[in-house]
Amino acid sequence: MRQYARQVCQDLRPIRYFAQDESRFGLKTLLGRVMTACGVKPIGAWQWLFKAFWIYGAVDPATGEAFFLEFSHVDTDCYQLFLDQFSQAYPETLNILQVDNGRFHTSKDLVVPENIILLFQPPYCPELNPIERLWQHLKANLKWASFKTLEQLRSKVDQLLTELTPEVIGSITGYDFILNALSALNTI
To answer: Residue 113 has what DSSP assignment?
Structure first.
């Protein structure tokens, strides 16, 4: 009996945890706080263009490793493509993806690859997903910026994603309770 248990444990893949979400990046100007002299109304250029694209992302808070794909919209087909490519990028591990309760995450048409487990967070609790802080970090660099075309915005977002190091991602997304749980899991 013990020999069988040892053999089963040897066949198990390592487990990895990723926080996963999608975020919209568009031409509508993101407003933010501006410092001015007391009594002086801040002035900033802004635009109301509603062209956008979406970044689907997954980050490992323990290592700072990240996986991003760009899509034109959010739906089950796009999410399926994201899961398939993510699965191919991490074939050697069993990957737990923390996700919200978006309809495309729970669609009956969604086929979750065999090396991915979707971990659904409680409804209406985006603050529990560490990647939300990464989206805020990226968008802070886009406040008051005006882009004439989606290609200009795409170029800037690509630059911001390229500049992210594993250390920065880990420092932004590494909630203590998650890192403690992951370190306890690795000692078992």
So the answer is: -
Task: Give the tens place of pLDDT for each residue, 15-68.
Answer: 999 999 999 998 765 566 667 788 887 776 666 667 889 999 999 999 999 999
Domain boundaries, the chain: 14-31+45-186
Greatest CA span in the chain, whole angstroms? 78
The fold of 14-31+45-186 is Nucleotidyltransferase; domain 5 (3.30.420)
138 in Cβ contact with 24 (< 8 Å): no
- Three-state DSSP class for residue 66: strand
- Check the CA dihedral 63-67-73-76 and report its sign: negative
Which tens digit of pLDDT belongs to each residue from 68-115? 999 999 999 999 999 999 999 999 999 999 999 999 999 999 999 999
Could you list the beta-strand ranges (E) of the chain.
15-26, 52-59, 66-71, 94-99, 116-120
Q: Taking a C-beta distance cutoff of 8 angstroms, is the pair 35, 52 a contact?
A: no
- In single-letter form, the type of residue at position 113 comes to P
Q: How open is the CA angle 126-130-131, to the nearest 5 degrees? A: 90
Residue type, 154: R
